[in-house]
Amino acid sequence: MIFGAIVAGGVGNRMNLSGLPKQFLPLGSSKKPIIIHTLEKFLMCDQLDYIYLGVHKDWTQYAEELVEKYKLKSEKIIIVAGGVDRNSTIFNIIDAIENRHDVSDEDIIVTHDAVRPFLTLRMISENIDAAKRSGACDTVIPAVDTIVESKSGKVVTNVPNRKYLYQGQTPQSFKIKKLKKLYLDLSDEEKSNMTDACGVFVARNELVELVMGDTFNIKITTLSDYKIAEAILGGMPE
Amino acid sequence: MINYVYQLVSPGIISIKYEDIFLGEEVIVKPTYMAICHADQRYYMGKRDFNKLRGKLPMALIHECVGKVAYDKTGTYFTGEKVVLIPNIPPKNPSKIIYENYAKGSGFRSSGYDGFMREFVNLPTDRVVPYKCAKDSYMAITEFVSVGVHAIDRFKKTAHDIKNSVGIWGDGSLAYVLACMIKKAFPGVNLTIVGKDAYKLSQFMFSDSTFLAEDLPEDFNIDHAFECAGGEGSYYAIDDIIKHINPQGSVMLLGVSENKVALNTRDILEKGLTFVGCSRSGREDFENAVRCMEDEVFMKRISRIIFEDGPVGSTDDIHRVFQNDLNIPFKTVFKWNL
Question: Does A29 reach chain B within 8 Å, measured CB to CB?
Answer without folding.
Answer: yes
